[in-house]
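[#protein-structures] MJ: dropping FAD synthase here for a structure pass
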Amino acid sequence: MLVSVPSPKPTPGSLRFDPAPGVAASSARLPHLHDDAAPLPARLRGSVMLLGNFDGLHRGHRALLARASLVAAAQGRPLSIMACEPHPRRFFAPGLAPFRLSCGGARYAALAEAGLSLIWTPRFDREFAALPPRDFIERFLVAGLAVAHVVVGEDFRFGAGRAGDTGLLRLQGRRWGFGVDVIKDVVRDGDRISSSLIRRSVEAGETARAVDLIGGSWRIPIFCAGLECYHVHDEQILPPPGTYEISASCRRGGNLGRHRIGIRADRHLTGALPASASSVVFG
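AK: finished. structure tokens for FAD synthase:
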């Protein structure tokens, strides 16, 4: 019998995540989640922050992370990242088909593995989307977070109508006293690596290509929906219906071996996975 179980979704003020496989459930290892509901702790002000959407961490994102980590270490500052909820694509086009490469708690767990001290999770709502670029900088980067340095990709845009660009960010950085690094695109086989490119690979069933662009495994949390049947987060992108070879893993980091699963047209996964399986892993 198939049982429908709602997918868990984080909400402002109640964000949480389970540690990723291999990450101990220790407050010393887990980053602080800040959604602007309360003042940022003083020890996390003055961070080096990656700005963007960061749907998972692919090779391009890791180039930004590598630079930000170097700056943070050299200056003795916390390392932080911006991760809007909901994703801006969902806000502007609520009818979109599921597109997220990494959802909910799994998204934050993956970021935790990157050694971050702070994950800033602004609520992407009508007010946030309407902020002029300079207001975004002054209200959040300067007053709210007091960033010491920001790292962005070449295509970074911000503020109402995506009017803010890297030139304006550099100009305002000089005015307010924070550094700015703009990292060149990472190219693979002639293509600029982006979340959109990875999504297209997934939609085409090219999971090996998607894993290569990510630069590591692609993990999808699963939730039991009946005998040998599982469902995924409502916004989780999936490959086309078919049969796939994956690894299964449990919540505390154990690799449960290789398995074959089916993906159905109704977005349910089927297969004889171990009872403790909490994720399927491509790659």
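MJ: nice. The radius of gyration is 19 Å.
AK: one more thing. Helices lie at 59-75, 88-92, 104-112, 126-129, 133-144, 166-176, 195-203, 207-214.
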